[in-house]
């Protein structure tokens, strides 16, 4: 089963990351030296995805398009300094995928943001990445989820166990376990009160969705926080064509807030041979 397109919603004020997000879009802030959108596009491309559709708010399309587009001035400067390695890396970023931006004029929730990609996606199944969620895994999560979609024909969400404190801010599911990594979803609730939550299993920002979701989203009323919730639309497909959970391995970090982003930067740097030893020595001296 091939999934060719991924939607990455990045509109939003980045309120958890103010004041820096007054001027810089949240998902362009560095996770060590590259933004989370870069990590997500890499994960998508590793699973065979070619087209990336960013959902941005007015004014954000410039920075995103610039990051993923060719930069002749920069490339000429690197070439004239004979910095071949960096030049190659910069060209690779511009060639990673076909990147486009759709504007979300009103902030009506995640479901509404996904609906903005309807025309670009058309009638094929597609992936969704929430770039606040960075997953460090040897086997790319989205690739495994595409396999689950291929085997079942259903919608697929990534799942992880969360603490009681986090339950009221997540999409929470009830499941029937199929195997170590797969489950069938029996119920989904967006941002439930802890006492109403069906479990501590939360949806993490990776989805594979069938195109029917667009029709459903169009008629999904506002839910939690008065917003059109993607979880509510997916829940309507629990019977048909079914919703499945993928219990991913590896480490998940929320880079949508300063502390999470700092931790992710440390994680990223510790994976880098050129700086890991230096960082480890500094950290152990704190
Ligand atoms: C969104 C989804 C939620 C999911 C979460 C994962 O919530 O609505 O179901 O658990 O992402 O990060 P948000 O963080 O946008 O409030």
Bound ligands: 1-O-phosphono-alpha-D-glucopyranose
SSE pattern: EEEHEHHHEHHEEHEEEEHHHEEHH
**End-to-end Cα distance:** 49 Å
Strand sequence of the main sheet, in spatial order? Answer: 5-4-1-6-11-8-12-10-9
Q: Mean pLDDT score, rounded?
A: 96
| Category by helix and strand content | alpha/beta
Number of helices in the DSSP assignment: 12
Helix content: 25-40%
Q: What's the β-strand tally?
A: 13
The radius of gyration over CA amounts to 19 Å
| Beta-strand percent range | 15-25%
Q: Report the principal-axis shape.
A: globular
Low-confidence stretches: none
Please outline the major beta sheet: 9 strands, mixed
Task: Describe this entry's structure for a reader.
It contains twelve helices and 13 strands. With 286 residues, it is of the alpha/beta class. The relative contact order is 0.16. The structure holds 1-O-phosphono-alpha-D-glucopyranose. Residues 110, 130, 132-133, 170-171, 190, 202-205, 229-231 line the site of 1-O-phosphono-alpha-D-glucopyranose.
Features:
two-stranded antiparallel ribbon, alpha/beta, binds 1-O-phosphono-alpha-D-glucopyranose, about 290 residues, nine-stranded mixed β-sheet, globular
Outline of the structure:
By secondary structure, the protein is α/β, with parallel strands linked by helices. 36% of the residues lie in helices and 24% in strands. The strands form three sheets. Strands 5-4-1-6-11-8-12-10-9 form a nine-stranded mixed beta sheet. A two-stranded antiparallel ribbon has the order 2-3. Strands 7-13 form a two-stranded antiparallel sheet.
């Amino acid at each position: 089963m091939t999934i060719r397109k991924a939607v990455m919603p990045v509109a939003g004020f980045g309120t958890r990351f103010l004041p820096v997000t007054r001027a810089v879009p949240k998902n362009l802030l560095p996770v060590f030296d590259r933004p989370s959108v870069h990590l997500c596009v890499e994960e998508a491309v590793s699973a065979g995805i070619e087209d990336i559709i960013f959902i941005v708010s007015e004014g954000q399309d410039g920075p995103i398009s610039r990051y993923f587009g060719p930069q002749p001035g920069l490339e000429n400067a690197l070439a004239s300094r004979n910095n071949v390695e960096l030049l190659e890396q910069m060209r690779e970023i511009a060639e990673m995928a076909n990147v486009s931006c759709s504007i979300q004029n009103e902030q009506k929730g995640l479901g509404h943001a996904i609906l903005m990609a309807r025309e670009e996606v058309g009638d094929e199944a597609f992936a969704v990445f929430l770039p606040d969620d960075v997953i460090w895994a040897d086997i790319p999560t989205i690739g495994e989820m595409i396999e689950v979609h291929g085997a079942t024909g259903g919608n697929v969400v990534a799942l992880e166990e969360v603490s009681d404190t986090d339950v009221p801010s997540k999409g929470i599911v009830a499941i029937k376990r199929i195997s170590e990594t797969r489950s069938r979803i029996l119920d989904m609730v967006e941002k439930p009160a802890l006492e109403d939550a069906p479990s501590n299993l939360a949806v993490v920002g990776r989805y594979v969705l069938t195109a029917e979701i667009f029709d459903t989203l169009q008629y999904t009323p506002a839910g939690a926080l008065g917003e059109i919730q993607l979880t509510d639309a997916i829940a309507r497909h629990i019977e048909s064509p079914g919703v499945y959970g993928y219990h991913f391995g590896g480490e998940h970090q929320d880079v949508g807030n300063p502390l999470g982003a700092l931790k992710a930067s440390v994680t990223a740097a510790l994976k880098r041979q050129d700086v890991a030893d230096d960082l480890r020595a500094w950290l152990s001296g704190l």
